[in-house]
Amino acid sequence: MDCIKMKAITLPQLDSIHTISEKEAVPGVAAIFKDIKETLGVPFVNLIWRHLATIPGGLEMTWSLAKPLYSSTVLNASARALRAQTKLVDTLSPWPTSVREALGLSLKDKDEIVLLLEDYGHANSRALLVLSYLHASLSTQVATGNQSAFKPANPSALIDPLARLDEKSVAIKPARPLPAIAELSAEVTALIKILNTFGESMPSPAEPSLYRHLSYWPSFLAAFWLAVEPLERQGLLVDEAIATYERALSTVNQWTPATYAPEVIAPDSVTQVLNSLNHFTYAVIARMIVHGDMMKRMID
To answer: How many other C-beta atoms lie within 10 A of the C-beta of residue 248?
Structure first.
């Protein structure tokens, strides 16, 4: 059975990220958005899917390839294994109760924050694997120009020693909605902008929602800045983000590659999809996995 042999290609950074909102979506796109929310068990459609909807044929192709993987038995185990290898997490110590209380965080606050961080960690680690898998698969198919050579005998089969585990996805729901940027104070907005640059492997117009979701607890965000700013200055956050990205590639390179029918999407659109997948995985999602699990170590 063939495996993906090709690493993701480094492509030019995105200067802007256009999206289609759920309210603006035409019926066909709206139906896919609905399927994404139902499949992933989330209340809203993530930025990457809303962005792919702006590329002709991009959302249809990528979601048709991604959905079976989200239903596989291997993805959750692989995502947990990926998160368990984040070495910088071990450089932080869990807070004593007195530190949490001195920051004005109650036990209920702690439980909410931990739940939120676990929700994001679960979603981001799965997304990194799925999107890296799609990028590597599509890159291989484009590079060879030979679709038939990469069709597996069993399209749902993944090569992974954990594939036989009979796991079920645990739906984790944050208690609080994502606040609008306009609802935040100037001070918290400025802090979020700083944190969003930590660990950047390249500049990105994407603004991850994790820090905005944590803005209900500004003291927690400030404490995280104090804890990781020295690591940022030393370049350790970006190193860990890149290592996480590379571990994801190493994992998906062992999986049976996905293929698409070239007649359903134009070559220019495929190039745009590859650029977007590469940017989100390399520049955004990998570092947010690192940040989220480091925050969870501090307060959990």
So the answer is: 28
